[in-house]
């Protein structure tokens, strides 16, 4: 389906002052080449200035009438197919700009011809014509816009010439060509070819074939063979060209008086190998160490059938306007606005071709797919594709269609497109006609930068029709007008340069136009704003964007278009309502600014659509630094109370809602609680009571549920205890209060958060350190309580070993430094032994050793027994724990018990006994009775 809009992409137009009737023309970097009709055999060159003004640079003679011509941006050369004496010639015109300086010197040489020293001094001041002889007449040509290589189509083959830069001396480098590769394609006569970045597109009258030349690594023993022989897919070589059945012919075969028409077919990707068009590669360049070897990858094959009508086949059904369009990755991201060095790196590639009444646009980058189909209102003559538009000429119109290249390229450039962060209008968006501009007799068209070059040729009857008087004129007056004019005296052709309006101007018109649909046709409004967005996005992806005078305006328009699309998906009830979030994010608008755009002032009740609620929910659930004002926060509360009251606890815990009135929030929560009570809602009310300083209400709310239920309630809303700021977990006022009044509940809640993947172990460490105002290297007792509590419930072996080493390290640190914990531990050693298998029963011989210890150790009895209990269990990895136990020397009883326990766990029983016999012989008997049993008996 094609949308029709009456916009104005075409601005002023100027006539190119050609001396002779144009036969062919093409555009260069900043110039227009016009080849005259058969009589003159010349090419006129015009410089195109601002607003399409033309300035004649000069002209040069050709060998004969020009049949085809093309310009290469890389190398700045013009290549032509010319005819003389019924023979065709392929010629490249180098250094043609010197003629505008007044030089008339011309050097004609054969391709690959060695430059003589006599030319060295004058090559800078003369135009060089390179003739490229071919064994078969050239039919069509194409220059690669990336590297300037030349592809020539001949009957049953394609010839590739590589552009070379020959260094004559340090002051002079000359362009030349080298015939490098021939693609033999049997039973195929190319009508058009397109060449870009080793991608080749070929059309016949009704067939399209797209190929890619892939570089292959050659082994040492095959290098010589491949440089002279054939390299092609195995299927193509084996298939050969012996089968002359109609199924293997890409063209229609005439048999007697019948025309055999094959069925339409479309083969994409790997399937296109089934087209049965064999291709053989022949390398023709001189083999060197840097010689490149290729193989053919089939990308697309499509065959069309002639249009049928009640009157039979339409003989004019032929493909035309084949084009490969590269889209480059620019040095700026459309959503990040960070400038980098601008490098022309190919991002995506598109192929366009057309039948008389329909055009096809394919993406042939990472995958091959049809992205747009263009239906024309009447038979087309020619079409030209640009990154922003498709321009089509018919017998009476110049039509401008939108394209989806920027949408497809954006998805190739940014893997995070179409997420909650970024978005782009879909590739499948309906194309639309922006304008159908009337012209008399359009014949040919080309495009460069912001100019369209259009050739019109009016037939005699067209000119006569223009002179017919209106019916209101008297017949005598009409006769006098007719007698005074001579239709043959006025030329019937014109070459126009039509200046397309700036992207910003057309963008503004699209935005203004979209407002007419705001309250009538929602989809049309979104469609037009999407078109405006893609228009700006395509301009930003242009390689010359960083040097554009409109750069800042385009970036501003991009952000503005994102805001407009965010408004649409927020205000309208659409299936894609979720897109409000990424578009608002790309717009750079703050939440406060979005609220001002969508929420009316005052207390009147509005209707809020899903897109707006989706945006608000995600924005408030993120750890944003933006704080809403008291008024805005209260308005947000009202919005969610009316649309989704269940979310009120989540919304109130957002850092952005820090300034909300707690009394107003409590009133809303009390209303919700009557309908949907929950532990999370109760905890939120307690949180608000704390903010108001109402401890009575706080205690009432906290007494509503048991402590275990409250701990699980924090899992439903972790931000009651912790909030993130710049990626760091920060404790809330609620957490600070629990630390002082209910530390056990705080630890239990944090353990529940960890077990439900709401907080990482490292984050919990930071959380407790900040909560207890501890330094980076100091471990507060509340954190140790958390580690011990987590040992009780955790089942992940990796986390268990990390926790065991953490608590071991802390126990050793406090014992070795005679450091008491700053707060009383929540659990005793006996509690841990009874509730956690990782704390084992302390063996009798350890108790025996400790009974004769010094009295000072009794002050650190809890840490000592905890450490001994850990080593008495089978959970901790002793080998990993040894480095943490080093601070405990063997000089005291604590160190002795630790060393003996470690040796016992490692199976070093003899060393353990020796240690006991030296230090505490009485304990050796208890040790032997307990440890040396069965297989552990000393030998």
From TrEMBL:
BLOC-2 complex member HPS3 N-terminal domain residues: 3-485
GO cellular component: BLOC-2 complex; cytoplasm
UniProt biased composition (Basic and acidic residues): 476-487
Region (Disordered) location: 466-487
Domain of life (superkingdom): Eukaryota
Domain BLOC-2 complex member HPS3 C-terminal: 505-938
InterPro entries per the UniProt record, alphabetical: HPS3, HPS3_C, HPS3_N
PANTHER family: BLOC-2 COMPLEX MEMBER HPS3 (PTHR28633:SF1), HERMANSKY-PUDLAK SYNDROME 3 PROTEIN (PTHR28633)
Name of the protein: HPS3 protein
Native species: Zosterops borbonicus
